[in-house]
Amino acid sequence: MAAARRDIAPFLQRVRAFLLGREHTVALRFEDALADRTQPQPELPDGPSHILSANYYCTRDGRHEVQPPIDLVQQQKLLDATGDAAPKAKAKLPTPGKVYAWD
């Protein structure tokens, strides 16, 4: 026997639905409205941490791979200072993200 859902009287439910302009959704959770707990396990593909051998936290943590931003002005000065010996091989500066070629 399912437990009776708690709500207001049927007449007041119709008045509430009229005033709201829609059917009211009760915020209380009842067992017959919940999903079953016997769902199958998800089949997920293997990720970077699926092999536990020699997989230390400090080597796979993304926060440790963050580096300070590159100062492009200083990089340009270094290229200009060392670029006198080989002018034919002009090195490109690193640019942030994708570059859109404006016409």
Give your account of this protein's structure:
The chain is an all-alpha fold and 103 residues long. The protein has a domain at 8-32. Helix content is 25%, strand content 0%. It has 3 helices and no strands. It has helices at residues 10-20, 57-60, 72-82. The longest helix is centred in the N-terminal third of the chain and has 11 residues, at 10-20. The chain is elongated, with a radius of gyration of 32 Å. The chain starts with 9 loop residues before the first helix and ends in a 21-residue tail after the last helix. 0% of the residues are buried. The mean pLDDT is 77.
Range of strand content:
under 5%
**Which blocks of ≥5 consecutive residues have pLDDT under 50?**
none
Percent of residues in helical segments? 25-40%
Name the average pLDDT. Answer: 77
Find the structural class using helix and strand composition.
mainly alpha
How is the main sheet built? none
Order of helices and strands: HHH
Question: For this entry, what is the oligomeric state of its chains?
Answer: single chain
The Rg value, from CA coordinates, equals 32 Å
